[in-house]
Design goal:
By secondary structure, this protein is of the alpha/beta class. It is flat, with a radius of gyration of 40 Å. It comes from Flavobacterium crassostreae.
C-alpha cells in the first residue's frame, strides 16, 4: 500500500468523524449514550463508503524461479515402424522425460508430430506424413523470447512441408536422436514419378521417372509400367557402384477413355530389405476433346487464316473453311464460326436453328447488321455506314471461364461500323470497346448462353493483328492461341452453368488430404450462403457408405474425407433444399510415402545439429545426451520478482458491511422514535 493511499484513509476517517459529530452532537440537544452509539455507527458507514471509493491495494513481491524449457519431440509417423525403431523411440523418449536430474534443471515439454504437431499423448506411429518444419514453427510460437534446447527423436525423413534444415531457430540448440539402421543396404527405388493428370484420347502423354540404387555391385534391373495385366512399357536399366541413378522419359499411349490407373515397378535378382518403394501407382484421366469446327467466310481475309492457325495450335481441333453457299453437314461439327455474316448466310443460319450448334460470330465493315439482328436475340445493332476503330478494355469481373489479360489494352484496335450495340440479360462481356480514350459502354468480345446453347461475338475485323502483336510482345503466338483455345473450349461444351458446382480430383494417394469443394449458386450466379450441402461416399467394392456435411468456407463449401482406405469410391453431393445433385467418383491409390525410406537421413540431421552448435546422437547414446544437457551452462534457472496486487478489502464485503451498518442505524432510530 502506498503512502498516498494511507493518507487518504486517514483523511477519510477525519471526514467520517466530522460528519457523524456534526449530525449527532453539534446539532443534537440530547447527548445520551444512544446518540454516541448512533454517531459511531454513522462514522463506520461513512468511512466504509469512502474506503470503497478509495479501494486501497496491497502489493506483494514474490520471487519465482523459472527453469529453462527442454522440448522433447518424438516422430510419430509410420516410417518409424517401417524402420523397426518404434520401441527404441519410446525408450529414448521415456528416459528423457522421466530423468530426475533433467526435471530438476528443465521444464520438460513432451510433443509428438507427423503431419500435425501436438502434445505427446498416445503414440501409435501411424502418421501418414512427416512435417518437421511444423515442429520448428510451433516451438518458436510456444516459447517466444526464450532460449530453449530441443531433442528431436526422428529418422530425419520429411515427406511434406518446407525444408526443416532451414526452418529451426539457429539460436536454439537442436539435438537430433537418429532412429533407424544407418547401415547401407541394397535397395532399388522409384524416387519420383511425374505424369500429367489429363491426356487426350489417341495421343501420347509424357511420364518422367527417377530411379535410384544403393549397393556395391553391378546389376541389371527390370523396369515396367502396367495397366492391369497389360504391359505398357518395359526396359532394362543397368546400375553399378558408380551409376546409382537413372532418369526415364517415356511416352505412353492414351488409348482408353476415362481414368486409367497404371503401376510402375522396378525389380532385380537381389534380396532387398524394403520392396515397398519398388513401385508407384499413378492415374491419368483420358479425355476425348477432338473438335471439328466449320469456319464460314464470304471472302478472303487475313483474319480467317490467323483464326484457323490459332485454333489448330491445339492438335485436338480441326478447322474446315467453307463459303456461305456450300452445303455443310452440321452434324459433323461441334462449333460453327461465322465470319462477317450477310444475307448469303441465311440458309446456313436457318439450318443451325435446328442443329443448335454453338456459334462464334465475328463482325466487321462488311457485315449486314440488319440481317444479324433478325438471326440472333442477344445483341441489338444500330450501325451506320461510317467505319470506326475500337480498342479493347479487359473486364476483370468476367467469370464464365478462366482467362488472363494477355495485354488486350496494348493490341491494335479492331475495325467495325460505327454505331451502338446493346445486350440482353443473358450476355456476359469479356472485352469492352473504347474509341481512343473514350469508353463506349458497348461490348467488343461477349458471350451469351440460353437453354444450353452458347454464342460468342467478336465485334471487329483485323484480329489477325492481335495475334501478330502478341508474338511481338512475347516472342511467341502461344498466349494468343491459348486465349482463342479457351473460347473454343467454352463453345465446344454443351454444359450450361450449373447451380451446383463440385471440384475434386479423380485420384488421391493414401495419406493425402482428400478434400472435395462445392459451390451452390443462386439465380444470379452468386454463392448461396444459406445452402445446406451433404455428401454420401460409397466404396464400390464392399458398398460401405457414409454421409458427411460440407462446411462453409470463405467462397465455397468443403469436406475433408481423411482416413478413407485405398479403393474406388462413388459419391453424391446434394443441396438439401433444392435437391440439386452432383454425382462423381474418385480412387484412393495404395501409396504410403512413409514406407519409401530404407535409412535415416543422418547427414541432414547432423547438418542441422551443427548449424545450431549442437550434436546428433543415436538411441544407445541417450545417457551421453543427458550428460550434455546437464553440463550445458547456457541454460540456467531464471529468478523473477512477481508483483501481485490485491484489494485490502473485497468490494462486495464492504458493500454488505455498509448495508448492515445503515440497517442497524435505521432500526435503532426507528425503535427509539428518532425518525
Amino acid at each position: 500500500m502506498t503512502l498516498t493511499t494511507a493518507l487518504l484513509l486517514v483523511f477519510s476517517m477525519l471526514v467520517a468523524g466530522m460528519v457523524s459529530f456534526f449530525q449527532y452532537f453539534y446539532k443534537a440537544k440530547n447527548k445520551s449514550n444512544l446518540y454516541l452509539f448512533l454517531a459511531f455507527v454513522r462514522f463506520l458507514s461513512i468511512w466504509s463508503v469512502l474506503v470503497l471509493c478509495i479501494n486501497p491495494i496491497l502489493k506483494t513481491n514474490t520471487v519465482v524461479n523459472t527453469p529453462p524449457v527442454l522440448a522433447v519431440v518424438l516422430d510419430n509417423s509410420s516410417s518409424i515402424v517401417a524402420m523397426q525403431s518404434e520401441k527404441k523411440a519410446q525408450a529414448v523418449y521415456r528416459n528423457l522425460i522421466s530423468n530426475n536430474a533433467l526435471k530438476a534443471k528443465f521444464d520438460i515439454q513432451g510433443y509428438q508430430f507427423d503431419s500435425e504437431f501436438k502434445v505427446a499423448d498416445t503414440l501409435d506411429f501411424k502418421g501418414k506424413q512427416t512435417n518437421l518444419a511444423l515442429v520448428a514453427s510451433n516451438l518458436q510460437n510456444n516459447n517466444r523470447k526464450l532460449t530453449y534446447p530441443t531433442v528431436l527423436i526422428t529418422d530425419g525423413n520429411q515427406t511434406t512441408g518446407t525444408d526443416y534444415e532451414y526452418s529451426f531457430d539457429l539460436s536454439n540448440k537442436v539435438f537430433p536422436v537418429v532412429l533407424g539402421d544407418t547401415t547401407t543396404v541394397v535397395d532399388l527405388k522409384i524416387s519420383q514419378l511425374n505424369a500429367n493428370k489429363y491426356a487426350f484420347y489417341k495421343n501420347k502423354f509424357p511420364v518422367e521417372v527417377f530411379l535410384s540404387y544403393s549397393g556395391d555391385k553391378s546389376i541389371a534391373a527390370n523396369f515396367k509400367i502396367t495397366n492391369g495385366n497389360t504391359v505398357v512399357n518395359q526396359q532394362q536399366i543397368l546400375f553399378s557402384e558408380t551409376k546409382r541413378t537413372a532418369i526415364l522419359n517415356l511416352l505412353l499411349p492414351a488409348d482408353k477413355l476415362g481414368t486409367v490407373v497404371y503401376k510402375a515397378a522396378i525389380s532385380a535378382n537381389l534380396k532387398e530389405k524394403n520392396t515397398y518403394n519398388n513401385y508407384k501407382h499413378f492415374a491419368v484421366e483420358v479425355l476425348d476433346q477432338k473438335t471439328n469446327i466449320a469456319l464460314v467466310a464470304g471472302g478472303n481475309h487475313p483474319d480467317v487464316g490467323a483464326l484457323k492457325r490459332a485454333i489448330e495450335a491445339n492438335a485436338q481441333r480441326k478447322v474446315t473453311v467453307f463459303s456461305p453457299e456450300a452445303t455443310i453437314d452440321l452434324k459433323k461439327y461441334t462449333v460453327l464460326i461465322l465470319y462477317q455474316p450477310t444475307g448469303a448466310f441465311r440458309k446456313l443460319m436457318e439450318q443451325n436453328k435446328q442443329a443448335k450448334i454453338n456459334t462464334f460470330v465475328l463482325t466487321g465493315t462488311h457485315t449486314d447488321f440488319a440481317f444479324l439482328n433478325q438471326q440472333q436475340p442477344y445483341l441489338n445493332f444500330k450501325m451506320g455506314g461510317q467505319r470506326e476503330e475500337y480498342a479493347a478494355v479487359f473486364d476483370t469481373d468476367f467469370n464464365w471461364f478462366a482467362t488472363d489479360n494477355i495485354g488486350f489494352e496494348r493490341f491494335p484496335p479492331l475495325e467495325n461500323q460505327y454505331g451502338t450495340v446493346t445486350t440482353s440479360a443473358n450476355v456476359s462481356v469479356l472485352l469492352w470497346s473504347r474509341i481512343r480514350a473514350i469508353a463506349t459502354n458497348a461490348p467488343l468480345l461477349a458471350f451469351a448462353e440460353s437453354q444450353g446453347n452458347r454464342t460468342a461475338y467478336l465485334l471487329g475485323e483485323n484480329s489477325w493483328k492481335w495475334r501478330m502483336q502478341s508474338h511481338v510482345n512475347t516472342g511467341s503466338y502461344a498466349k494468343y492461341d491459348i486465349f482463342v483455345d479457351k473460347i473454343m473450349q467454352f463453345l465446344a461444351s454443351k454444359e450450361s452453368k450449373k447451380a451446383l458446382e463440385v471440384t475434386h480430383e479423380r485420384f488421391y494417394n493414401s495419406g493425402d488430404p482428400i478434400e472435395i469443394l462445392a459451390q451452390y449458386l443462386d439465380k444470379n450466379y452468386a454463392l448461396d450462403a444459406k445452402a445446406r450441402l451433404a455428401i454420401v461416399v460409397t466404396n464400390t467394392k464392399n458398398k460401405w457408405s457414409k454421409k458427411y456435411d460440407l462446411l462453409k468456407a470463405t467462397n465455397e463449401y468443403k469436406v475433408n474425407l481423411e482416413g478413407l482406405p485405398a479403393g474406388k469410391y462413388t459419391f453424391s453431393v446434394t443441396e438439401l433444399h433444392s435437391k440439386a445433385t452432383y454425382l462423381g467418383q474418385f480412387e484412393i491409390l495404395d501409396f504410403d510415402i512413409e514406407k519409401q525410406f530404407v535409412n535415416p537421413d543422418v547427414s541432414k540431421l547432423r547438418r542441422l545439429a551443427a548449424a545450431t552448435n549442437a550434436k546428433a546422437y543415436f538411441p544407445d547414446q541417450t545417457e551421453q545426451l543427458i550428460a550434455q544437457l546437464l553440463q550445458d551452462t547456457s541454460y540456467q534457472t531464471i529468478q523473477k520478482t512477481v508483483v501481485s496486487k490485491s484489494p485490502l478489502i473485497q468490494w462486495y464485503v464492504l458493500l454488505v458491511w455498509i448495508i448492515l451498518l445503515l440497517a442497524i442505524e435505521w432500526l435503532v432510530r426507528k425503535y427509539n422514535g428518532l425518525l
